[in-house]
Queue: 2 jobs
Job 1
Amino acid sequence: MTGLSYTLREAFTNISRNGLVVLGAVLAVFVSLTLTFGTLVLGEVVRINTLQWAEDVRVSAYIRDDVSPSGIADLQTEMESWPEVDEVFFMSKTESLEEARVLLANRPAALRVIEDDPSIVPASLRIKPVNPDDYQTIVTRAEAMPGLLSVESAAEAIDGMISLRDGLQIMSLFLAVALGIAAVALIANTIHMAIYSRREEIEIMNLVGASNWFVRTPFLLEGAFEGFVGAGLAVLVVVGGLRIASNQLTELPDWINIGIQSDYLARNGALVLIFGVVAGLAGSGLSLAVHKYLRT
Amino acid sequence: MLRLENVTKVYEGGVVAVKDVALDINKGEFVFLVGPSGSGKSTLIRLMMRDELPTNGDIWIAGKHASALSPWKVPQLRRSIGTVFQDFKLLPTKTVYENVAFAMEVTGKSRTAIHSQVPQVLKLVGLSAMADRMPRSLSGGEQQRVSIARAFVNRPLILLADEPTGNLDPATSVGIMRILDHINRTGTTVVMATHDHAIVDAMRRRVVELDRGRVMRDESRGVYGASGDTEDREEPVDRPVTDDDGTTNPASAETDLDTDDTNETPNDKDEGISSKPTEVAAEAAAEGDGG
């Protein structure tokens, strides 16, 4: 038991002796993980919202007037068999006219054209993709089908949404990697300095036969502690920030939803804490591996 | 206890520090390693504590094949070796007591063992009254005694001392030698590298002289410089173990370096070893000290 209490005591003596350097390492982990976790959470906000929008993603296939009802039914059956298609439903010319009247309510000129000759509004098949990302495949496949006037989708809106979501995902991955490396390097540097400042003690420990683990464990604990505290602060700031944002921003448009599920936050918060501890252990392990005072 | 077989140490850059050294040191022996600076004394000490590995040859330390020992077994080996250096290597932020206790703490000794052993060994080196002092408030001789107490507190089989009196005045050195002699009398093998003519000449113990990494002389009761009149020069290294207890030779008796071995075991005397060398000893040491 002397060993365990010694190890803990030494780890915390190190921390208190090198307060400023330790603070630097903790802040580095904190900033890195706040940015990473923050981006992840932002990505989740976008994902939740794109999920809602994705519900409305449709590909519209407009049908020529000369296609018979049985031909339309064949088209519908064919499209429903495609793996990327979730469901297909038919909108008759009458239903399409009703929809057009609603959509064009603010554009009297366009509305007048329709009212002049309601028959120009075609019937259509509305195709709902399984995955909104696949709409382009559906458009391409549908365009190859006979009997259609045109195939359309809200391409730009969908693309923008998808690229925003993908961009945030890539960015959070990039941030996690780059800032993770920075956090590991800063912890390694802190531990390196701690080892240097205690080189005399380490030399004597080696002389009198302290085991390798006995010499190294306090430094590993110190690194893990720094990583944990930095990560803990990051989780607090991101979760707290999100709470404040959802309380303050009551005037957000209806279509933006920042109510992230708390189990998402708990799961990813725990991951961030683990990441902090692992980064701390990796940093001190790196430092211990290369330090000349620790060779035997 | 220590056996070196054809040991050669070549440092990076091709500097040959130790060349083809064969040496056999028995349990309980007191051996001086002498020779000019750069003759390989310190390298030999570092090889004997497995701080360095030989480029060629084999080393056995306390029955273990040290030159073939895996790194993770080194700490265990070190526990059977005490080391003392010219620069003391004390921790400036710890008291005398804590410095000595440190050697026990970091090898996982129990608190009870620490509480009983540290005062004992401090008494042995005559520093009981200074247990709570910080090293920087002590004289060089006192600091070296703390360092010896730390080296001895785990009762090692071997004590290696690299120029332990190198930073000390002759009178103080005598006090250090008394302690090392006492430790040797408890059965601990002592190997000491030194430049100190007076001490070597006064103690009349085994002397191994090195020059440019080679053993030039190995005498069982030698003096510092090569002496043509020493009757047992070049005695075979594998001479039988002699139990040194009680063998006081005339030279050491004259200079009062040898203790009279009846009253200085760690447990039976309150004062431990006197820290004040006699005037005779001081003079003898001062006379022979070539610098």
Job 2
Amino acid sequence: MLPLSHYIVLAAILFGVGALGVMVRRNTIVVFMCIEIMLNAVNLTFVTFSKLHGNLEGQIGVFFVMVVAAAEAAVGLAIIISVFRSILSVETTDSGELKL
Amino acid sequence: MTISEPTLALIVLAPLIGSILSFVIGKKVKNLAGWIATLSAIASFGIVYNLFRKLGPKEIFEYSLFNWFSVGDLSVDFIFRFDALTAVMCLVVTGVGSLIHLYSIAYMAEDESKHRFFSYLNLFLFSMLILVLGGNLLILFIGWEGVGLCSYLLIGFWYKNLAFAAAGKKAFVVNRIGDAGFLLAIFLISQTFGTIDFVALAQKIAELQDLSLYVTLLTSVGICLFIGAAGKSAQIPLFVWLPDAMAGPTPVSALIHAATMVTAGVYMMARTNFIFDAAPLAMSVVVIVSVLTAFVAGTIAIAQNDIKKVLAYSTVSQLGFMFMAAGSGAYWVAIFHVITHAFFKACLFLGAGSVIHGCHHEQDMRHMGGLAKLMPITFVTYLLSTLAIAGIAPFSGYWSKHAILASLQSNPNIYLSGILEFSVILASITAVITAFYMTRSLAMTFFGSYRGHAHPHESPLLMTIPLIILAGLATVAGYYGGDLAHYLEHVLPANGAHFHHEELVAALKHSWTAIMGVLVALILYTKLKNIPKMIGSALSPVTKLLEHKYYLDEVYGSFIVRPLEGAAKFLWTNVDQSIVDGAVNGTAQIVDVSGEVLRSTQTGQVRTYMFLMFAGMIALIGLYLVF
């Protein structure tokens, strides 16, 4: 089995990639995917520590995160579609105003 | 002996109801206002007369409406009291008041807002009656302020003329200065004696074991009261408002600024005689101030050309005479002069009003003259009143003024011992001056040939009837001096002042100085018209001084009004505008600027928000790791 640090580092890199993506990418769908990457980075750490400590709490946490992420994906994609319908764009820079 | 008498409330109620009705109904039917007001004044007079007949010697009618308040030991009733002094004052106020109301119906016939005028006039009667009926200092003070308010409202009656409105304000402000003194006196009394009721107070002071312990206190109370009286009754240094008060309609000048309100100070002094009698130093102040006032105002009157201004200064001077008597302890003599003065001065003012009415609102005597033939009734009444005020026997002014000079002469006050003779001489000179300037106004108005451009005509009956009645009273009232002294003997201490009844020939001999004054003025202003001008230009500094009223308004302006204005302006610009407003506006500005700065962070760009969120997170973690 690989040492613990490998998992943690991988999770950190995934989180960093996700965060960077959220900050630099303009396409809302990509931003969305980056958020998913960050969530999964967190999931990875949860599972890692669950294995380390030998209890299931971390893995239960992961289930919750996955449920929330699924709900979030459903709502988020619906919002993206309705925004696209009104401004014909999915770029974050194009939806900088609260009013239409 | 004190008797409860509920009808006392009716005396004040009648003019109050009249005031409301004449305003409400008079607004709809203009011509009714005057009659309603006049009827309520006459009703009040009727009630007063009835009570006057019922009042036995040594009796006091009393009616307490309710207990107003009680704080600690001090309990104040809303109480009316009707004794001989009140009876006399009420008769004068309602009697002369009724006549002036009647006169006003004709005088104000063409005014747009006469309902307002008559409503104020009745309100004045209401306040004045509260003043004279009040059984304690506080009720008196309510009336005192009420008449001040009505005076202000009526001086500025034609408020669209800014100068008139300013005159009203001046009267109000100057009176407030006097009122401050009066209030201080009330506080001092209530604190020391625990009561402000006149009867209880008189008893407490009479029962004082060692009066000398209280002399300083009573002296300060007396002086404070006199400051109040000086404000209301136009004595030095607070008389400057009265001449300006002539801006009001002439009946107002007659009623408020000659016959009744301005004598309130004298009445108040007579009412609180037990305080003044125990404070000889305060009494000496009263005498000195009153003699000076009489002289100063009398000399100013010589140089005035406005018929109402002459009468106004004459009123100030006559009020000085009243205070001379009151200050000498001869209170009934002061009240005697209040009464005779109410008759002849009201008649003079109404006569002047009749002249002004006839000459189409001309008040300058240089544009009058020769009116004797054109307005015979006004002339005769004015002549009789002039002889009365000049102090020529057998007219009423002689008796009261003679009694005043006699009481001044026999003033036993030790504080006056050095200057009493000088005061008497000055007062006697003032009496001659009175005769002189009044005859001057008579001659300039009624003798010679008409110098104006209007077509003078005699006034209607409604105006001449009050004139005739008042002139009649001004002629004969002097004979009743002895009766008055007798009537008031249980209320006011005589302090050795008696009424000297004289045979007509002897009285005429005694009034030779006044007759001289009249004759000199008559010759100067009818035959030798150039001489007054020559004297005037030869003594031009004196003339200027008199024409400008001793520059008193200017002195007050530069020493009191202007510094106050400067201080107010300083506080306004430097304190209010820069500090107070600065604090408020500064707060708003800080919010405004910080909002402007923080606004730029709200870009609407999700990326920025995310970046800031992560940056913040990293910063927090960094902080956590470091500390």
